[in-house]
Amino acid sequence: xxxxxxxxxxxxxxxxxxxxxxxxxxxxxxxxxxxxxxxxxxxxxxxxxxxxxxxxxxxxxxxxxxxxxxxxxxxxxxxxxxxxxxxxxxxxxxxxxxxxxxxxxxxxxxxxxxxxxxxxxxxxxxxxxxxxxxxxxxxxxxxxxxxxxxxxxxxxxxxxxxxxxxxxxxxxxxxxxxxxxxxxxxxxxxxxxxxxxxxxxxxxxxxxxxxxxxxxxxxxxxxxxxxxxxxxxxxxxxxxxxxxxxxxxxxxxxxxxxxxxxxxxxxxxxxxxxxxxxxxxxxxxxxxxxxxxxxxxxxxxxxxxxxxxxxxxxxxxxxxxxxxxxxxxxxxxxxxxxxxxxxxxxxxxxxxxxxxxxxxxxxxxxxxxxxxxxxxxxxxxxxxxxxxxxxxxxxxxxxxxxxxxxxxxxxxxxxxxxxxxxxxxxxxxxxxxxxxxxxxxxxxxxxxxxxxxxxxxxxxxxxxxxxxxxxxxxxxxxxxxxxxxxxxxxxxxxxxxxxxxxxxxxxxxxxxxxxxxxxxxxxxxxxxxxxxxxxxxxxxxxxxxxxxxxxxxxxxxxxxxxxxxxxxxxxxxxxxxxxxxxxxxxxxxxxxxxxxxxxxxxxxxxxxxxxxxxxxxxxxxxxxxxxxxxxxxxxxxxxxxxxxxxxxxxxxxxxxxxxxxxxxxxxxxxxxxxxxxxxxxxxxxxxxxxxxxxxxxxxxxxxxxxxxxxxxxxxxxxxxxxxxxxxxxxxxxxxxxxxxxxxxxxxxxxxxxxxxxxxxxxxxxxxxxxxxxxxxxxxxxxxxxxxxxxxxxxxxxxxxxxxxxxxxxxxxxxxxxxxxxxxxxxxxx
Amino acid sequence: xxxxxxxxxxxxxxxxxxxxxxxxxxxxxxxxxxxxxxxxxxxxxxxxxxxxxxxxxxxxxxxxxxxxxxxxxxxxxxxxxxxxxxxxxxxxxxxxxxxxxxxxxxxxxxxxxxxxxxxxxxxxxxxxxxxxxxxxxxxxxxxxxxxxxxxxxxxxxxxxxxxxxxxxxxxxxxxxxxxxxxxxxxxxxxxxxxxxxxxxxxxxxxxxxxxxxxxxxxxxxxxxxxxxxxxxxxxxxxxxxxxxxxxxxxxxxxxxxxxxxxxxxxxxxxxxxxxxxxxxxxxxxxxxxxxxxxxxxxxx
Lengths: 829, 300
Description:
Order of helices and strands of chain B: HHHHEEHHHHHHH
Structural class of chain B: mainly alpha
Shape of chain B: globular
Helix content of chain B: over 70%
Helix content of chain A: 40-55%
Largest sheet of chain B: 2 strands, antiparallel
Radius of gyration of chain A: 32 Å
Structural class of chain A: alpha/beta
Radius of gyration of chain B: 20 Å
Mean pLDDT of chain B: 86
Strand order of the largest sheet of chain A: 10-11-12-7-13-14
Shape of chain A: elongated
Low-confidence stretches of chain B: 1-5, 295-300
Number of helices of chain A: 34
Oligomer: heterodimer
Distance between the termini of chain A: 51 Å
Distance between the termini of chain B: 51 Å
Number of helices of chain B: 11
Largest interface: A-B, 69 and 60 residues
Largest sheet of chain A: 6 strands, mixed
Strand content of chain B: under 5%
């Protein structure tokens, strides 16, 4: 952290200049300098919350006031010496802060804001009303000056004291922020779940931050009392809390020098002239708004950001061989794990064992419960039933951070790297885990170098060749994956859980990942892999567990699983129901109803679809097939307008809709029935249908709803029930009816059979066959590949975001490409 | 800190109850504004108190300064309040919410400070008395002197809540808003413009605040800072009520108003704010999601 050291040096130099000015300034100027120093102190405290923990306190003036009154009362009423009184004031504010944070931090956001506002008001009103102690609205006058070795402090001396304390706090903040605590707080702010998975206890971490923050404000208040000589409740208003926040935001939250810069601006600007003083609140409000708009990182943040771009560091790093703990891995066993959400079994009695030194893969179609199992194993969900054994210890039911400490590390499906931190810092959060050590590490050279070396070794081990000082959010996708694995390995885990590490990787990178996974397993770590790149799974796994609809349907070697009829059925969806093919062949098309050309789309920097071409003739039924993660749902989201922006063309009857948002493509007649049904659970069935026709103002919806009720009679029976109470099958019928009432020119269906029982799926496909025969143009994405092809005229097989094959439904159904796309290699190349 | 030995007169208690219900309904009205924007967009206008002040100041300026007829003054003031809501959303919320930043919290606070101080310069520092025929002569209700306005206020508060309920349940617009609250992406797929729904929720929220400002102006004078504390109390009400439940918010408003008035009647105004705000912290410690709020979102 070179930048922060430079900031610290500059800030200390500025304070030294201020100290020199104290000797030449007049009384009022000295008072102002002292106020800058005290405001800086409160700002530094708030910076711990706002800049490191990402929490807002709208009542920090309460701690400032608490400190001021504590010193005044202790010195005047109890005759205590100033110095112990000041320490008690800081401790009191810290303890009150801790007590306040405990309930408030369990619920973040607006709740925390409310608790801190209420606290500020309680302090101010307590000061007004507890007259016997505080002097009420008149306040306390004649707070005595501090005395040190029989020298009575003048205003000048108090100003020097304030400057010295501000310098001390700046130094401590720098130590705290660049040390393991600051790193852990920034990590928790960037990703709560990832920090819990590394063993961090977020409540303890944040309560500590809140207590430190409050203590800094309390000490500042304690010095304010003798400086001003008079304290009264009017100095501790709600608005003053806002001013303190302004100090940190304008200066730059999270930067070392920010509070000093902010304090200088906020304290000195009103001194520019009487006219300005009159408009100062207006000016501060405008200043806050402008800074939030233009420089969200504040003055210092904006300056250092430019510097970082100018001097990118490219130092060579020590390379080395990382080796894990010698104590070895442990067997991880799931015993009859079960959990349900809202009455639906996400996992129902899952048992398997992952041996140390082996790779155990969990596979299964979409919605089979794979991620649920990982969340149960790592403590993010608490199972309704069953046990998780790590060696001989039962760990199910513990908190996520306790399970992490027991030796289970994990990665996440979407990258959960700590975005504000560098690559090396990400790994170092893992290296430290919950052993954060000293709050203000003074001598850090040796340990610092040791940690950097260990991080570099780990990064070399996973094959990350880039700059360890690069910000994690600037990394390319592959490197994010690797760094996340390095961070998990830094915990020296006995078990490593990986959630779709190959998602979004190209062929070469997937091959390197396979090698890495084997090397990790070779170190006697039990690796559990959830993955839908079947090529990778079949290549690296020792043992494959197959889930379907929350149940374990097979557990065997890769080759045995590939041949297992139950597995093939789960993936290709043979449920014993024969859908009815089209009786009369479709006449050849003139103009396509929907033409997608060279469509590219993705999320953030990850491109998921690479130049997709797809056409649909009027009245045609198209099946889009492919394994999990092939890009089917992304294609549906891109076509419907939910995913914007996209590159390429989406022509609906000749007009390009690729720039339109979803609410406008619907009006053009391109309608999506989304994955997971997505009915409005709190609205009645008829209201859901009415919303389906929202875009058709002129239509006679009532008679159309009647027609749909005739088609789906079970919806009529439940017309006034809330949609959330319907069964999964009924919800799917409702979602289909809600799509139809929008009068689609092309109806897109995303995974309608997902999570439905076979009999319900049969009814659904019968309904789809009827729609097809009535001339509705349909594009169907579904796991039930065999059934989808039986209904369809033509089909497309996606793999890795590209169209791998397309053709008539009959030709695809008889082709081996499909089984390969779903279950990976094994057959002829 | 015990109450003084003297028992308060029953009429005082009844009077406190009436004024508590009245104020409580106004807290509830402002808090409903928090509820609407939070449900639709997961953001709130921290300057809700200044929206209330604007309603009162606009109405005063039209009715008293310019001498417009009351109905026209009220309508014009509420239209301006709605426009103000759109401005808040456009400049202090959307720029931050669209990039996932929490900056909207401080930005709305800043906007509140700006508008309060602009009002201070344009409207003047002196609080103005807002004459109203409804606040002239008290009625005698079972021996308790009650101003007609004190009956109108809770009636209007409950009326506004019922109106909101009716609009949500029985109009196309209301159902569209409910759809956005329940599932944003699915709402888009129905052809609903989510961005406009959010802007609309801000307009509705400031109109509610404006109504409250106009209603209480005759009881409390009109000034640029009349809304600050009121807005904070209303936010406490919204949070304690469980910000995602409309009826929880209304209920919490009445509770807050009555508790506040009772503490004042029984112990004097000395401890009102300390005790009510302490009660807020306690309530949140015991019920982290408010009276009727839901604990997190349930997976369907």
